[in-house]
Specification:
Elements: H1 4-27, H2 35-47, E1 55-57, E2 64-66, H3 69-76, H4 86-95
Antiparallel strand pairs: 1-2
């Protein structure tokens, strides 16, 4: 088992990392926190992760496709957004004049 001093130093390292992350978030410009930028970040993240089968860019990159609504809303969306209701997620798109088309009612 780790010694007490090792455990304390690990806790301090974790605290320092959290403080650095908080400082970086504060230094980001406010426009970086708006819905379109968060959506872009989520799409980029999903394309390089285990979530690529749930959310992806279209072949031409002009739209995105939700393949699995449940995984999107339960696992991926909470990493980037406060809203966890699909209806709210769709509603925000309208505020930014994004078109939302649903081709498959099972999505």
């Amino acid at each position: 088992p780790p010694s007490k001093s090792m455990t304390i130093s690990m806790m301090k390292m974790k605290e320092e990392q959290q403080q650095q992350q908080q400082q970086q978030q504060l230094l980001q410009p406010s426009w970086h926190k708006t819905f379109p930028f968060k959506l872009y970040e989520m799409l980029e993240y999903s394309s390089d992760s285990e979530f690529s089968s749930s959310l992806s860019w279209s072949a031409d990159g002009s739209t995105f496709i939700i393949h699995d609504k449940h995984v999107l809303m339960n696992d991926l969306t909470p990493m980037f957004f406060k809203q966890t209701q699909f209806r709210s997620f769709v509603s925000v798109h309208a505020v930014y004049y994004f078109l939302f088309c649903m081709f498959n009612t099972d999505v």
